[in-house]
Known about the structure:
This protein has 194 residues and is mostly helical. 56% of the residues lie in helices and 4% in strands. The protein has helices at 27-36, 40-44, 48-68, 86-90, 98-109, 125-135, 138-162, 171-176, 180-193; strands spanning 14-17, 20-23.
Amino acid sequence: MANSPQRKTSNDNIVIADGEELDLRNRHLAALLAWLIPGAGHAYQRRYVKSAIFSVCIFSSFLTGMFIAGQKCVYASWNQTEKRWQYVLQAGVGLPAMPAAYQAWKQRTGEQAFWGDFMAAPKNLSTLDVWHHDTASGFDMGTLYTMIAGLLNVLVVFDAYAGPLPPPVPKKKQQDEPDAEDADEQADSHSKKE
């Protein structure tokens, strides 16, 4: 069992990574923080290097996409003008994409948000055509960059929850499955008897 890559500890928030105990603290809170602000969950867990790497990579990808598209590519819309499924992926980046959801809610109620057209859906298809024309291929590339940022953050959320290893095996399942070394010993003793 000493050679196994993951050992179970008595505390579900502690995993063994590379032979060292790693305290993930409150896994659920860490995952929520990691979704809200990329890197925040790892900072909460005192995994500062990972926090910095994830934060820089995800924010730079998201901001690059916004810059390329002239700040027009992140918006939430599900109506006759457009069904913006891309926003589901963009929302994976957390708080940076939430103004779009707020804008969609305000547009649905017929009110104007206090920050104008920032992350607001196009009012009609001709407005969307103008956005495509003005940014050339930047609108599509910006959409792609922001979607990738959201998907990357989903992986970061999982890492904040599970740590660098898969989630611990529940006690009942762990007791039911024989250890790899025990299974090898049983196989050896069985072959010696024959």
